[in-house]
Amino acid sequence: MRWNNLTDGPTGPAALFGADAVVTRTFDTPEFRGITFHEVRARSIVNRVPGASRMPFEWTVNPYRGCSHACVYCFARKTHSYLDLDTGLGFDSQIVVKTNAPELLRRELGSRRRPVAHIAMGTNVDCYQRAEGRYGLMPGIIEALRDHANPFSILTKGTLILRDLPLLRQAAEVTEVGISVSVGFTDTALWRTVEPGTPSPAARLAAVRTLTDAGIECGVLMAPVIPFLGDAPEQLRETVRAVAESGATSVTPLVLHLRPGAREWFTAWLGEHHPHLVARYERMYAGGSYAPTWYQRQITRQVHELADEFGIGPARRGAARAVLVPERPSEPVPAGATQLTLL
User: What is the pTM of this model?
Assistant: First the structure.
């Protein structure tokens, strides 16, 4: 593995961290077996979303790179190539941990040069993946945001967020806090193959119930809706019904998109598990990374109609929970690299 393009060199301060700051660890415990952690001292933690973005937030924080949730469709896989790491199994098992994220965030929030503005988390990789159970970076991050009354939002598939419920409630007393949980479907067979490292959809929806019962509004990002595997009318109905029963304040559908890096990994998975669908996917995504507009609109209409039937609706534009749809990786990238755009 080479860190050359992101460590000290001719560019000096532009590097993300120093080469001597990387510590590699493995832990021989069942939950971390097969995973390698690269502990780094990051140079910055608050990242600006490019001006061309259509998202209603300017800043993101990502304490991890790579994700043990191992979602076969994850758009952020491409970002691992910036570290010269594999975007397939490497993305799932080579996790970069910014161990100084809480202290760095506190310092950056206190800087007069940086305005207080909404900070989104979980828009690149999940900040409540399994690594968080060991490194515990999020409590310090939430405390820094709370102490500076800085508005923020979190998108996650991780039920570990419930550990930080007291801190979230404290933060919600002084600033705007938006929480959204990602649940694209409730089909357990599909979940086990496409999201093997995540808590089950039922566990995630139980977390939504716990959050809402505690007074923390929580929406559901119904993502991804997977063509031909999770988009049947009865599947959409069952998912929206379960979301409504969880007490979610909103449901927002997002159809599967296949950016470079994710596309190759997902296609290989599809060929192994559903080879009869490969040709259909080639036709559906022949125009690029996204399903045809007509299909996206059809899914959105169906979900919104079901949401109305079950008494919930899409997230309001501009609301805290509405800023959680991921648009692009928010990490700084080396010169010459191209940031990804999702929407």
Answer: 0.86
